[in-house]
Batch of 2 targets.
Target 1
Amino acid sequence: MYPRKTNLARQRTRLPDRDSALCLTPGGEGSWLSVTAPLGKPDQKGFAGRRLVVTGGAGFIGSHLAHRLAALGAHVAVIDDLSSGSRENLPADLAGFFKADIRDRPTLGRVFSEFRPEIVFHQAAQISVSVSVREPAHDASINIMGLLNILEECIVHGVSRFVFASSGGTLYGEVSDRPARERDPLIPKSPYGIAKQASEGYLDFFSREHGLESVSLRYANVYGPRQDPQGEAGVVAIFSNLLLSGQAPTIFGDGSQVRDYIHVADVVEANIAAALAAEVSAAYNIGTGVGTDVNTLYAKVTKALGAKVTPIYGPARPGDLQRSILDATKAAAELGWTPSIALDEGIKDAVDWFSQRP
Ligand SMILES: NC(=O)c1ccc[n+]([C@@H]2O[C@H](COP(=O)([O-])OP(=O)(O)OC[C@H]3O[C@@H](n4cnc5c(N)ncnc54)[C@H](O)[C@@H]3O)[C@@H](O)[C@H]2O)c1
């Protein structure tokens, strides 16, 4: 079985006091904070001294990525407007934190001029499918126009590789007989999924037209410490949070819906593999290939918490797929990436973190 890699609960850090000494220019919203930290970490993967940007690095996945890259000795800058992310998620040894909205092109221009990144990991996004359904233009303003702003800055400033957070769960339709493969038809139903598909198309265009090396990682259902329990999709976080506060979670439908749950640390390693691979081709599924139904997941979370609470069953949500599992053999073959954290271990890691939260 998969060996346990890290106890991510231990990675919860707060910015140190020197945060208060960061240079703030200019004041107010849309401004940025930056600091250059002395870094002298061992170079385990060839990242030491390299200048990397993580957009959305104050969020769930982006912050784990920023922590890991900083620990590998990279100069990591985060661009995030803190709309859903938190400063507390950031690693202490960031080379820069830029509080900026990716829709604000002039500010992005200043950030890229100042920091001069070599590789950009684009995690910033409006991540709610239901918000995208209610407000498609708002979703597109961040998830398409924001992406284009970043891509254009990458061209202007000579970024060598762009790693994009796409979504396997919303791009493929119902694939009932086997895990979905990259070459399966893309039939996104929501504006969120449509924006991810469009983004992949833009990456292809920027690659052909401008020579920007880019790669899309189509994540399965990511879970782990720091996931927002108020979100609509992170069921491990939602179940843990409700159970810890003594409430019974609601399962929509009969709980037989199957999903592919992948621990955030494995997603981080996939980003690293995609950044370092000699060659990349378009899109890769990042999942375990293993399906787990919601009832089984609920049982695992309650077991990890030592809780005995019967869930409430509510009406099925319209548009929810019955089955979403990703075949990641292409990532294994071309990026040398395979997931390494078993679901029971990953759930324990996440549940431990939620249990220790103030
Ligand atoms: N969590 C999952 O299961 C999952 C699955 C598939 C794809 N993804 C993708 O992975 C990426 C990261 O998702 P996450 O779960 O960490 O979400 P998250 O909400 O925790 O992180 C997103 C971050 O982006 C920032 N952000 C949002 N709008 C911004 C803007 N206009 N300008 C600058 N920053 C902005 C937020 O403040 C937040 O810190 C997203 O692109 C998401 O679509 C996530």
Target 2
Amino acid sequence: MSAKQVDINKWEEIPCECGAMASRSTVRYRDYDVRGWICKKCKKEYIHPEDSLKISKLEALKKSRVRVKIRTVGQSLVITLPKVIAELYGLEKGETVELSPENMKKIEIEIQ
Ligand SMILES: [Zn+2]
């Protein structure tokens, strides 16, 4: 017998503890807007487990920070994004990001 894999990203509704159904919505979790479900009846909020995990990883990275070395490719300088960062933000080769210089010591990278 083979177990069927479920894709909860397709779940528009999930059963709530109160017996009613919770509909897919954006839920506020810590300081983030994440995927989740909100119960129509009791207003209880459920957080998407993938987003909950992502936030835990993000919070851990914020605390430890990530140091990378600058390399060169031809005339350009290259900053490598470690795998943990690439996975967290869903970044892949060939994607474009936007760099915004914040001040003389900080550059912000925005994912498109
Ligand atoms: Zn409920």
